[in-house]
Amino acid sequence: MSRRTTAQPTTRPAARRRLRALVGAGLGAALVATLASGLAAGGASAAGPTHDQLMAPYLNGPTHPRTTGIDIARDKVLVVAQGRNLDTFKRTPIEEATFADKSTMLANRNVPLTGITVYNWTADTTSPIVSGNRYATWPQLQGVVVRGGAVASEGLNHDRLDSMTPEERWQDTCGVLPSYRARGLDASSMYAYSGGPYQAVHQKQLVKSCYAFGRQYSTKRNVMNSLADPWVLGVRSLNGGCATASSTCFGVSGTRGYDTLENLRATVTPKAGEVAVLQVYHLLVGRGPSWDCTSTPHQTSTTETYCLSDVMAFLDGLPADVKVATTADLAAAVGRAPGQLPGMTLRQYLKSQS
């Protein structure tokens, strides 16, 4: 009589590799075990984890007290901003955090989000697609504000001010603000210069009249007592990269090194009387064709791509005395709230340019 043998369940090699990547990305051991069990049994998880399962480890963290006021001489302040209100890449990998994911993760930590908005890249229903990226919708931005966040403006179409006529320039800056107000939003806390660097001449002649601050990319923190005319706010763009600026990853030669968690903690964490503004773009987990958030160090092949785990680890490790705020909170603290800005009409601006 022959003995019946039972084949032992196994996972597919590709699935096993993915599970190893999840462990490296910080996915909980219990969840990984559950996924492995499902794979072995040939269940619904055979194709790998779902998007929600990949995001689950980062949904919650330590909560921060809501900022009700800022002492610009003493407080330590952090602002978190979403660059261009990016949702995801057009062909969304399941490993990428969506705008909804990011805003929920921050809200669960009581960290208010400042959404930097390109007005005509924002829609009422489905996420619009522009230049290979999806963007947040107006209802999503309104939800951010309801949860204590804010919006800032990056103009109408992400064009450079120095490429416009004076009338177009005014429409892109002061002229767009009533359109935000018609949607129940105020974007006057910051103007983010599109398509290139901060432009001092337009900040002094126009932007400062209707926006609390003009964005200038910087690796330095801002001393709040020193924020003054022409009201420039330094913003740290959180960038990915290869292991070092001179190395190659994913077939691309690096131009900068990945901004590590250790460096983030050392250079972004504010001290007394300082505000740091941290701007994020695409945030991913695990490993994919152009990123590896499981390696040491983490690597990405594009500047605006970064590892979600590092952002959340930075926020979760903030000292307890750091206040989290929005650009609108900061504007109010320095006397630049919406009702305190002089504004400039189109007629006034055109006259100043003649």
Give an overview of the whole structure.
- It is a single chain.
- It is built from twelve helices and 18 strands.
- With 354 residues, it is an alpha/beta fold.
- It has two domains: 13-47; 55-353, Glycoside hydrolase/deacetylase (TIM Barrel, Alpha-Beta Barrel).
- The strands form five sheets. Strands 1, 3, 6, 7, 8, 9, 12 and 18 form an eight-stranded mixed sheet that branches.
- 43% of the residues are buried.
- The model is unreliable at 1-26 and 29-44 (pLDDT under 50).
How many domain units? Answer: 2
CATH third-level topology of the largest domain:
TIM Barrel
Mean pLDDT: 89
- Report strand %: 15-25%
The gyration radius over C-alpha positions equals 23 Å
Q: Please, how many helices?
A: 12
What's the CATH first level of the largest domain? Alpha Beta
| Shape category | globular
Helix content: 25-40%
Terminal residue distance: 103 Å
Structural class: alpha/beta
Assigned CATH architecture of the largest domain = Alpha-Beta Barrel
CATH superfamily of the largest domain: Glycoside hydrolase/deacetylase
**H/E order of the elements?**
HHHEEHEEEHEHHHEEEEEHEEEEEEHEHH
Taking the sheet with the most strands, its summary is: 8 strands, mixed
Point out poorly predicted stretches.
Answer: 1-26, 29-44
Quaternary structure classification: single chain
Quick one: how many beta strands? 18
